[in-house]
Design goal:
It is a single chain. The protein is of the alpha/beta class and 268 residues long. The chain is 46% helix and 7% strand. It is globular.
């Protein structure tokens, strides 16, 4: 019900934005079930529904670090359920994501009353199928899957360096890049694949440009000179891949090939 109200509100905003002459707006993709859109399929549904009523296009804003939370909200594996069941039967504290506290409490009571392992697995699987909005899949935690599918629906992409385990909004310094998963060459290629793909029914029209925005979160106690140095290093790093504003995506990707730059995942 809350999700439907959200979609209705944003659809109304889209109509108002269209009447006001705006070219569109974006809603940032986030981390968890109470922050939609947060899964790949959920984001597609979100865009279809928000754009169904006309008005200015509704886009999403992909952030390169907002895929870190999805792994916390996946359907428990059999080994996890077995450990959970053993803990409940032994009266030990246990923590397992099963939708929300009320749902978990229901499963806990059933296990305490004698629910077997196979029965528990079947019950959780049926619950997850009926409540897909509460669960993520492994691919929902993949930065490049998000870019490949939704860069064509994201006129603004927020850039932060991350190791994939947290959305700390680190700068693109040499030390952070050595441990980070956000590789500019992979980002540009994923964006290019997104625009080359077929899209999906109900998607907003592809934007005429995509703006890559650095989004560092500096410590509140950071010395200004140190923070500015981090930002300057981040800009210089990305300028190796996007030499100037307004470049054509095809030319940037071709330049990667000419320079012999390959994705880190391919051996570089």
């Amino acid at each position: 019900a809350a999700y439907s109200a959200l979609v209705d509100d944003i659809a109304a905003l889209a109509r108002y934005a269209g009447e006001s002459g705006l070219r569109g707006f974006g809603v940032e993709q986030m981390y968890s079930p109470n922050q939609p859109p947060w899964t790949l399929d959920g984001a597609a549904d979100f865009l279809r529904r928000c754009n169904a009523g006309g008005g200015a296009p509704v886009y999403i804003t992909v952030d390169t670090g907002h895929q870190c939370g999805q792994r916390l909200f996946q359907v428990p594996r059999p080994a996890e359920l077995a450990a959970y069941r053993a803990a409940v039967r032994a009266g030990r504290p246990s923590a397992l994501y099963l939708g929300c506290r009320e749902h978990e409490a229901s499963f806990r009571r059933a296990v305490a009353d004698g629910m077997g392992s196979a029965e528990l697995e079947a019950a959780v699987a049926a619950f997850a199928d009926a409540h897909r909005h509460l669960f993520a899949r492994p691919e929902d935690g993949d930065l490049y899957a998000w870019l490949e599918r939704f860069a064509r629906c994201s006129p603004v992409i927020h850039l932060q360096q991350t190791d994939g385990g947290a959305s700390a909004h680190h700068s693109f310094t040499a030390a952070r890049n050595a441990r980070g998963i956000v590789d500019p060459a992979r980002v540009l290629r994923a964006v290019a694949r997104s625009f080359a793909g077929p899209g999906f029914d109900g998607a907003p029209p592809p934007p005429g440009e995509v703006v890559l925005v650095l989004e560092p979160f500096l410590p509140t106690a950071c010395r200004p000179a140190e923070g500015l140095a981090e930002i300057a290093e981040s800009v210089a790093y990305w300028r190796r891949f996007v030499p100037e504003d307004g470049g054509r995506l095809s030319a940037l990707v071709a330049r990667l090939a000419d320079d012999g730059r390959t994705d880190r995942g391919e051996g570089a």
